[in-house]
What does this fold into?
Amino acid sequence: MTDPVYVTRIKPPLALRTMLSVLVSIVILLLSFFRSPGSTVRPHDTMYYILIVCLIFSTLLEVYLILLALRKASEIMWNTDALQFHNRTIPAPEIKSIHIDGPLVGILLKNTRIVPLGLCFRFTDDRTQAIQSLHTWAEMNGVTLKYGRFVKWM
It folds into this structure.
């Protein structure tokens, strides 16, 4: 591999809407779990356990999203023929397109339809310079850039 053309700092996407919706679901589950104190009606045992499983899953998802948001910034290296970040090298021929949605950037690989969360990031340094270097790198390697919303996991 050749020397990096450009190096910039990136962070994972800040999923505030997802965090808020998971928090709302946790509150709703807790409210249905702890019914009013005067109520003696208890739901069926199966529903009770399904409620507990949903509550645990939602809580774990919220903790994961908070830890992801608090993760330290890492670097992305734009090499002449590949991208390298998170100890992973992605050759340019494997990239179908790069999507840009405001501050969020997602890399769509050729064998996938949805951008994985590990390939979504936002720039922490000078965003305009980083987008310009991304545009230059994409032109050099024949990767299409698409502006607008894109589908990603979570």
Notes: The longest strand covers residues 95-101. Helices lie at 16-33, 45-69, 127-141. The two ends are 33 Å apart (CA to CA).
